[in-house]
From TrEMBL:
<dbReference type="Pfam" id="PF01764">
    <property type="entry name" value="Lipase_3"/>
</dbReference>
<protein>
    <recommendedName>
        <fullName>Fungal lipase-type domain-containing protein</fullName>
    </recommendedName>
</protein>
<keyword id="KW-0378">Hydrolase</keyword>
<feature type="region of interest" description="Disordered">
    <location>
        <begin position="1"/>
        <end position="20"/>
    </location>
</feature>
<dbReference type="InterPro" id="IPR002921">
    <property type="entry name" value="Fungal_lipase-type"/>
</dbReference>
<dbReference type="GO" id="GO:0016787">
    <property type="term" value="F:hydrolase activity"/>
</dbReference>
<feature type="domain" description="Fungal lipase-type">
    <location>
        <begin position="128"/>
        <end position="285"/>
    </location>
</feature>
<dbReference type="GO" id="GO:0006629">
    <property type="term" value="P:lipid metabolic process"/>
</dbReference>
């Protein structure tokens, strides 16, 4: 409701479903294939409670690896994980992948911080960033910080300075400033951007950084030329969309799949990023028409 109020207050009517179009088959198939990563990001008991309402404690303990503590050293070390590395184990068990694909992640949080997981899929030539949706009290605080805020030039830098965005799209955004977003989601996206790609001030003239993604995707690095996919459900989908806007200048092969995202930007910005952000709602994958 806050998202709708934000659009209405600034004279931008929300688009109806009839104004959107179904995404191409290739995007639909990719969205379906990557959904498991957005789901796996719920490494606490919430996912298991939804699937096993009566036996969820047993299901959660199994997915956390507590029934096989001798396997602890197999799992990657994530920021804020428990001593038996249960969140890493839970994520990998859900997506059914081996430990070496999970390169980085965070599960401990403060206000306006997101839990995330970074996965390298060599067989698909992709790097996937999975952002968790609402699961903890900290996530609820981020949800609740829904006061509108102005999107700064830095927040839209990746969109407005990208050579991949059509000039007419840039003009529509530039001519309609100021633009507005959800303050809690924007804060979480800004923090996550710093976590995985460094500070914007660190960029040189060629827009290079010393961040973690650059260490994977930079020229001559392990994942040079790979696609970048950012996925998230609900709150995680909204954070993923704003993160994608900030990263799009640097990674041309970037696409965001947001599953049931919260409203987080105004309609003009939503239209401007429709080429690289796909919203998946009620099992239907749609994009806004330009």
């Amino acid at each position: 409701m806050q998202g709708l109020a934000l659009l209405q207050r600034h004279g931008q009517s929300p688009r109806s479903f009839e104004d959107s179009m179904e995404a191409p088959d290739g995007l639909i198939q990719e969205a379906a294939a990557l959904h498991k990563f957005a789901e796996a990001a719920y490494t606490g008991p919430l996912l298991d409670f939804g699937r096993n309402p009566f036996l969820f404690p047993c299901a959660w303990l199994y997915r956390q690896g507590l029934l096989a503590p001798w396997a602890r050293n197999r799992w990657p070390i994530l920021d804020g994980d428990n001593w038996w590395r249960g969140h890493a184990a839970a994520f990998l068990k859900h997506v059914n992948l081996t430990p070496e694909v999970l390169r980085r992640g965070r599960v401990n949080q403060a206000k306006c911080e997101a839990a995330y997981f970074i996965v390298v899929l060599h067989h698909l030539r992709s790097v996937v960033v999975a952002v968790r949706g609402t699961e903890t009290p900290e996530d609820l605080i981020t949800d609740g910080l829904c006061k509108e805020c102005i999107l700064s030039a830095e927040d839209l830098h990746g969109l407005m300075n990208s050579s991949h965005v059509h000039p007419d799209v840039k003009l529509s955004v530039e001519s309609s400033f100021p633009h507005y977003g959800h303050s809690g989601i924007l804060g979480a996206a800004q923090d996550l951007f710093r976590q995985i790609d460094g500070n914007p001030g660190d960029y040189d003239a060629e827009c290079k950084s010393s961040g973690f993604l650059s260490s994977l995707l930079g020229a001559g690095c392990e994942c040079d030329g790979y696609d970048v996919r950012i996925v998230g459900h609900s709150l995680g989908g909204a954070i993923a969309a704003l993160l994608g806007i900030k990263l799009y200048r640097r990674y041309r092969n970037l696409h965001v799949f947001a599953y049931g995202p919260l409203p987080c930007v105004d309609a003009v910005v939503a239209d401007a990023c429709s080429e690289f952000v796909t919203s998946c709602n009620y099992c239907t994958v749609t994009r806004y028409q330009n």
